[in-house]
Design goal:
Helix content: over 70%
Number of strands: 0
Number of domains: 2
Strand content: under 5%
Structural class: mainly alpha
Distance between the termini: 88 Å
Length: 259
Amino acid sequence: MNETVLDSAPRTLSQRRLLYWSVRRELWEHRAVYLAPAVIAVVALIGTGLSALWLPRVLRRLDAYGATVTSDLMTPYAFIAFSVLMTGIIVALFYASAALHAERRDRSLLFWKSLPVSDRTAVLAKAAVPILVTPVVILGLVVAAQVLLLLWSSLIVAANGLSPTLLWNQIDLTVMWVVLPYGLVVNSLWQAPRYAWILLVSAWARRVPILWALAPFVILITPATRGTTACRMRSAVPGFRRRKLRRRHAESLRPLACP
């Protein structure tokens, strides 16, 4: 009887396990975290794949003139990396702004708080998505898309009677595959305070949390922009209008130090 009671008792999960399943729950609820970069990667791959149809002509010209390695052939691979990276960053910003706000709006927060998961674990899981999960998704999609593009380009070159080594000598992805993970790690650490700020705003903003999160930065930037605009007006307005402008707006233009 005692063994039956012990077997039927619920097992307590470790904090690491709870964090893992919390992150998976976030990915189940917000599929745009990986679907949006994947769609952009496919679109970029199709576009660069069509441009690869002109590779045999370019390689024949390079082989005929004995040209050295050119960076133009690396442009499609850089375009794939840039497009997926920017999409991932934008999606991460909008995810952070809606992570806590959406749960408060549809009252699903009450259900999740009834589960044996602490608030700290829930917040860490939400912060781990833009800081940890998004860079991993970006890196995997970029490498996969670039490998597929390289294979497709090699098939096109081989189908036109050329050796794929001509293409491989012109393309070196090792540097990009080393720099990209390093850049993603640095960017995640650099953006971590911003994601934390957006999550904080998402916890109390009633509407449009992304605007509330960006409002302080806009307020800080506006005085500097206004000063620059006034200085440009001073140098652009003719003499008689400049004197009139100074008399009318003397108090607002006096503290400005124009170069």
